[in-house]
Amino acid sequence: MIGVHEHLARILSTVRVAAPTRRALDGAQGCVLAEDLRSRVSLPGFDNSAMDGYAVLASDVERAGNPYPTRLPVEGDIAAGDTTRRRLRPGTTFRIMTGAPVPEGADAVVPVEQTDAGVERVTIHEGVPHGRHIRPQGEDVGEGQIVLRAGTRLGPRQLALAAAVGHGDALVIPLPRVVVVSTGDELIDPGQVPGFGQVVDSNGPMLAAAARDLGVVASRVGGVADDPETVSRVLRQQLARADAIVTTGGVSMGAYDAVKAVLSELGTVQFDRVAMQPGKPQGFGTLGEDSVPVFTLPGNPVSSLVSFEVFVAPALRRMAGRPAFESAPVVARAEQGWTSPSSKTQFARVVVTSSDSEPLRVRLAGGQGSHVLGSLADAHGLAIVAPEVTEVKPGDEVLVLGLDGTTPGDHAVAATAGEASGMPWFGATAVAAAGSPS
Ligand SMILES: Nc1nc2c(c(=O)[nH]1)N[C@H]1C(S)=C(S)[C@@H](COP(=O)(O)OP(=O)(O)OC[C@H]3O[C@@H](n4cnc5c(N)ncnc54)[C@H](O)[C@@H]3O)O[C@H]1N2
Ligand code: MOO
Fold it and tell me: What keywords are annotated for this sequence in UniProt (predicted)?
């Protein structure tokens, strides 16, 4: 038997970051940048108004107030999108909208609320100092400045910035395309009612969803018969469209374990018994001319999910140009005791709870058998119990790896502190403390 770290090390030293390719921003979400992006413009691109109001020379309105307001003639309107260059003559004003270019000669904007909102002439009740409510050109980003570094993952905010500074595309690491292949004569498609001896393919939808949750592209082939010729044909077909293949089932000691039979002859896949529970029978290697990584996961549903989280997810992140582990396990305290197999790393499915003042706490999410799907759906994380530990006692500290890309405790904080007390972070105090927009 080999250790979890040995199997993972072999995987991570084999998989490669995909070759960069240029993608339109709309198709680059979730990709990692393979180049530094420089701003092609300055942001804002021109001095513009932060308020709906009147562009003025501040000195013209400095005396405006009760009981003596200032009256100015309005030379016209400037709306956002107005591309005419205008000049403000001292002693006059333009009505201006938020985002519209400030006319040359104006050095402040009086918000409409401080006026009588006049169209031809405006009465200003309260003046503004020089520069007020003008967003100066280049205040945010300077032209030529590097705004996003190679290695940055493009999420909504990064895509917004890339677009705003003049880019329509970017050189990125493409998202790996994963194909999940479920093998087993007993499998039928989701939505069908199983007859005696039949089992619905739940691993396929689960692992494809887990891969998408991770931010890669996933598809699946369900119910592949436990017959070497069929498995071999399906794998060869999928090689053409896959950057990684994940199979489930057919890798233990059974007489009909076709995946093992086929891949023992093809490619570099090596089958090992990994000292972990669940997830003992594992295989990994590459296949085809392009050395596509192939992960053969055990068929038991919990075993396949744990194997995905521990071995496949880090590899896919690495292929996508991301760190293999983006969030470290957190420490939590066991609420109850449980046993763990000797000389194996145990990945126990746990429910995580938290309260404001105490450390995170965990309890087992129901039965721990490798086939137990009901409680798998309730779990928030996997408690990692070291091989030398055979018993976790109440109060012991354990490390917990989040499931579905979450950090353990996040959901618990939301559920306990949030819903129970009316989402205090959206409360009146929090909003007032955040200040007013400009
Ligand atoms: N003699 C031994 N038998 C077994 C050993 C062993 O060491 N010696 N290891 C056990 C362990 S541990 C595991 S894990 C399983 C792994 O088995 P396979 O990978 O060969 O998987 P199958 O036999 O095909 O299926 C196991 C189990 O999972 C169900 N299954 C399979 N695919 C799916 C799917 N897509 N969706 C839902 N459920 C699925 C299948 O019906 C079986 O019940 O081997 C032990 N045996
Ligand atoms: O590894 Mo099996 O996954 O122990 O049930």
Answer: Magnesium, Metal-binding, Molybdenum, Molybdenum cofactor biosynthesis, Transferase
